[in-house]
Design brief:
mainly alpha
Length: about 160
């Protein structure tokens, strides 16, 4: 099985563009949830799901499944593949965490300096995690599976060979 990415593949850039839409939806889950509700014509009273948390959780699950499959196709050991996929899912939960933009925009008006620092830290962690995940997925599609092979695993149990 060849796991290299051919440089003449015309689907690489459109795939990265679709991933960009996926990540933008994760960056603004509340707004995306409301936009999807409006586009589909579902009113709140008749909706089966009324929580915007379903979008970040579904995106985390999808990224877990995608990375696990990509690691398996790259012939990474199953324990390491599972650990890498779980690690990416945890990072995705942080990156796609719903945060009200109005609170982030009004940080400077908060009278409590600790609260300002807390919201700034959340915004920085969320943005940097989001950028890290996006560049990881984009590099995977543009450079190939060696990107996932080089991904460092934080779980100590996955770093040691298993029988």
């Amino acid at each position: 099985m060849d796991t290299t990415v051919p440089t003449n593949n015309p689907w690489r850039w459109p795939t990265v563009a679709l991933w960009a839409l996926f990540f933008i939806a994760g960056l603004l889950p509340d707004e995306t949830f409301e936009a999807l509700r409006i586009v589909s014509g579902v009113v709140t009273a008749r909706a089966a799901i009324n929580s915007p948390w379903v979008l970040p959780l579904a995106q985390c699950a999808f990224l877990f499944h995608f990375v696990l499959g990509a690691c398996q196709r790259a012939r990474i050991h199953p324990h390491q593949a599972s650990a890498k996929a779980l690690q990416i899912a945890i990072l995705a939960l942080i990156a796609f965490l719903p945060v009200e933009l109005s609170q982030l925009l009004n940080i400077q008006h908060s009278p409590i300096p600790e609260l300002r620092m807390f919201y700034c830290a959340i915004a920085i962690i969320k943005a940097s995690t989001w950028l890290y995940l996006f560049q990881l997925i984009a590099r995977y599609h543009l450079q190939g599976p060696q990107v996932l092979r080089a991904l460092w695993v934080i779980f100590p149990s996955a770093r040691h060979p298993h029988p």
